[in-house]
Design a protein that fits this description.
Length: about 650
């Protein structure tokens, strides 16, 4: 509802419409309108000044939010609202989504000038959003054609358009965005009855004993809903050929096709029937997944991980089973060119980079198994299985126990009693050395993680816990707290980060020049051989190693280094990394086979930097000691 007279700005009109529809807290309103909470409070005051003449006010309830209260229904009925407010996308992300749907669903050309006018934006702002739309469509082999004087129009296969629309719905479903799903049902699906459609599918899956997990079944519901809607809008598939379809799939599809007559008035055409069969094949769980190609690909992956990264996952039966089931369906999708989108692709690449990278390397040049190149989305699904297996088999056993220095002037008997008490109560603590007070005072530095002493000491570079010959509960609690701190992170920082390999490059440099400069230094210092640089370039060519927050982690394919070291490069001016993306903080990894078990830990460090948005702080470092302080501070909070 909007009235130019009633509301002095569009935002007030939208704010009123939002609060009238639902009760929302202050922060949520600020997020939705991309303004500060102070601006929301100011707008609410302005709204109340207007609404007081119409028997209504916006009130605020603590821990609940803002809501509209009508004190005089008669006066409120005279509120001069003449038309419904059209939901206008405000952020770039929302505009890209809305533009994408407009191109996919409109038969006529889309005119940016008309959209810019409706959304109160400049045409140049929309042009930037169209670039992002084109990138998204490119994944589905869809493109946008410019037509002089008539606008822009989508070009591509109908099956690709359906795949893109289904993925849009699926991504909102996975994000549990109920409001967005409701809006998209109206926009994309013409309010089709999804509950009834799901019953049609469920009945036939049970009757023909087809197994689907909950995610696969829900995806198929959206896929079928999109097909039905597109057919009713005049976009029926005229040709879609498949071969060697299992008789069970044909039987189930035939019954489902008859169920679709509720929506269509008739059964599916031959082309649409074939398309439905392929959608079912790509989502079902195979009862007998031991197909030759599936089994061969699993063997190849496990062999590659064992040979190149020295992680032995051969005996992990659960991993084998999960991968066989997934790969069987995956090969069907690849065979019939069914694009699948992983809504968590970005998160998997960002927060599980080691598992993703191992999987990516293992699946390079596997066209003989898959017949065509695998997408990042398919690779990331497999990366989850492999990442879980790595955690299951290697998450424990290589963490470094806390090491302590015990200082005492007591006799042997009492000393042995204290040692026994510590070992019994804290089996994860290792007593590295036992020294006298004089021996301690002569030390220039402490190698251990902290010091436990029965006498008062001058603190050097490590924390001291003073205990009595018979430690009190409080003293044991202090000791336990220090022992529970993860010592692995500081240990890795000290071991694998070196001042000699800390660079601040505040001048223009290309990615290729950087790789050459760093790899030559590593080779000269005896960390790598000549084959390391080509391997780093090869790995970067497969998929960008940019994690997020302008942090990149280039490395070789496999473990090629003689010794492990991390070269840290800070580039305030930025280095062009992947198309239009820029890297400011680069960690070039050289990991050796002898130290492969710490590889996951090294990756965890970089993930934490991304999570904590540490780029700005890191770029302020002038020397290695500054960098080390920030990193230790960041990873002291690693959970």
């Amino acid at each position: 509802m909007t009235s130019k007279v009633l509301f002095p700005s569009q935002r007030l009109a939208y704010l009123f419409d939002t609060i009238k529809s639902e009760v929302l807290p202050q922060q949520e309103l600020a997020n939705r309108f991309a303004v500060s909470t102070r601006t929301i409070r100011t707008d609410i005051t302005a709204l109340n000044d207007i609404l007081k003449d119409y028997g209504a006010q916006v009130s605020y309830t603590k821990n609940i939010g803002y809501q509209l209260e009508i004190s005089d229904p008669d006066r409120y009925a005279k509120l001069p609202i003449t038309q419904s407010i059209k939901q206008v996308p405000r952020s770039s992300k929302e505009r890209v989504s809305a533009l994408l749907i407009a191109f996919l669903t409109q038969s006529n050309s889309v005119k940016l000038d008309d959209i810019a006018s409706d959304w109160f934006l400049s045409r140049s702002t929309l042009q930037n959003d169209v670039f992002a739309v084109k990138q998204c469509l490119d994944k589905y082999n869809l493109s946008i054609e410019n037509r002089p004087y008539s606008g822009m129009r989508l070009i591509g296969d109908e099956s690709s358009i359906r795949a893109c629309l289904t993925d849009i719905l699926w991504q909102r479903h996975m994000a549990e965005d109920v409001l967005a799903i409701d809006r998209l049902r109206k926009t994309i699906l013409n309010d089709i009855d999804l509950t009834y459609l799901e019953k049609i599918l469920q009945n036939q899956f049970e009757r023909f004993e087809l197994k689907l997990n909950a995610e696969g079944q829900r995806y198929l519901v959206y896929s079928c809903a999109v097909s039905i809607t597109r057919i009713t809008q005049g976009h029926e598939l005229l040709e879609y050929q498949v071969d060697k379809i299992d008789s069970t799939i044909i039987g189930a599809a035939r019954e489902i096709s008859e169920g679709f007559s509720y929506f269509l008035g008739s059964v599916l055409s031959d082309a649409e029937f074939n398309y439905l069969c392929v959608q079912i094949i790509s989502r079902i769980i195979m009862d007998s997944p031991n197909q030759t190609k599936s089994l061969a690909l699993v063997e190849h992956i496990l062999s590659y991980i064992n040979d190149s990264y020295h992680y032995n996952l051969w005996q992990d039966k659960k991993l084998r089973q999960d991968m066989l089931i997934h790969i069987s369906s995956m090969l069907s999708r690849i065979k019939y060119q069914i694009h699948t989108t992983n809504p968590l692709l970005h998160e998997i690449k960002q927060y599980y980079p080691f598992a993703y990278d191992i999987t990516l390397s293992a699946l390079t040049n596997t066209e003989k198994y898959t017949e065509s190149k695998m997408t990042e989305d398919e690779i990331s699904y497999l990366a989850v299985h492999i990442g879980v297996a790595l955690e299951r088999n290697y998450s424990s056993g290589h963490e470094r126990f806390a090491q302590i220095l015990l200082v005492s002037e007591l006799g042997n008997a009492t000393l042995r009693m204290i040692e026994s008490k510590i070992k019994r109560d804290f089996p994860h603590i290792k007593i590295n050395r036992t020294l006298s007070y004089r021996e301690y005072e002569q030390l220039s530095q402490i190698e251990e993680d902290f010091v436990v002493s029965t006498v008062r000491l001058t603190e050097k570079d490590k924390q001291i816990v003073k205990i009595a010959p018979f430690p009190t509960p409080y003293q044991l609690e202090q000791l336990g707290r220090l022992a529970m701190i993860d010592r692995t992170m500081p240990y890795i920082i000290e071991r694998f980060f070196d001042e000699k390999f800390f660079l601040v490059i505040d001048k223009p440099i290309t990615q290729k020049e950087l790789f050459k400069k760093v790899c030559q230094k590593l080779e000269k210092s005896g960390y790598v051989d000549a084959d390391f640089l080509p391997s780093v370039i090869e790995r970067e060519a497969i998929v960008s190693t940019l994690l997020g927050e302008n942090i990149a982690i280039p490395h070789s394919v496999g473990l090629l280094a003689k010794k492990t070291v991390v070269t840290t490069i800070l580039a305030p001016q930025g280095i062009v990394w992947d198309k239009n993306e820029i890297a400011h903080v680069i960690f070039l990894l050289a990991i050796s086979k002898d130290e492969y078990e710490d590889a996951m830990r090294i990756y965890n460090l970089f993930v934490n930097l991304v999570k904590e948005k540490s780029t700005k702080r890191l770029l302020e470092c002038k020397k290695f000691d500054d960098f080390r302080v920030i990193v230790k501070d960041s990873f002291g909070r690693l959970s």
